[in-house]
């Protein structure tokens, strides 16, 4: 079970968005009713500067997807970051620099039956290897004692806390916002 990790062109990503979103829905155990909306959001995201996407494929089946793009002051997500940093007493000078020079890891998902086998790690290395930003930032739902594959992966790649127990506008769940310098310093 050795996956092929490959970069997707923007046309490949947009054409295959339904299959890729299905991986996301399965991995996150979301209601399938969100499928069409997420497909459109993902297709719009592919137009962001610095957009990069990778897929993990085993026996012609997509089992993982990761994508991201350069952070931008115009993006909703960066507005949320700035709000969170203000709420915790910042942003500091260093945080100001970082939030204007980062690669946003928007999504990283592996089909449940394939999690815990290094696929996410391989996708993250491929996704971030050519990112021109000084840092990568991502968010992940808070889990008691960080006891899931996602947190284990992010910590092993050197991600540290930027915000904890943060609530994005429109979502009642608590999130951790994590950051790591680029290039990644942790090997496969």
UniProtKB/TrEMBL annotation:
InterPro entries: Acyl_CoA_acyltransferase (IPR016181), GNAT_dom (IPR000182). It comes from the Bacteria. Residues 8-183 form the N-acetyltransferase domain. The keyword Transferase applies. Keywords: Transferase. One of its GO terms (molecular function) is acyltransferase activity, transferring groups other than amino-acyl groups. This is GNAT family acetyltransferase.
């Amino acid at each position: 079970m050795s996956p092929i990790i490959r970069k997707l062109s923007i046309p490949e990503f947009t054409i295959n968005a339904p299959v890729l979103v299905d991986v996301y829905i399965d991995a996150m155990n979301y209601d399938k009713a969100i499928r069409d909306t997420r497909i459109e959001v993902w297709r719009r995201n592919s137009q962001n500067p610095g957009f990069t996407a990778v897929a993990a494929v085993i026996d012609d089946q997509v089992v993982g997807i990761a994508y991201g793009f350069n952070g931008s002051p115009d993006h909703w997500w960066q507005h949320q970051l700035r709000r969170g940093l203000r709420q915790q007493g910042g942003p500091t000078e260093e945080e100001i620099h970082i939030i204007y020079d980062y690669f946003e890891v928007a999504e990283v998902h592996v089909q449940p039956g394939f999690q815990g086998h290094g696929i996410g790690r391989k996708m993250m290395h491929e996704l971030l290897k050519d990112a021109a930003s000084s840092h990568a930032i991502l968010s992940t739902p808070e889990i008691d004692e960080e006891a899931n594959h996602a947190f284990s992966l992010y910590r092993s790649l050197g991600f540290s806390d930027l915000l904890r127990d943060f609530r994005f506008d429109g979502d009642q769940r608590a999130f951790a916002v994590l950051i790591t310098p680029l290039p990644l310093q942790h090997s496969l």
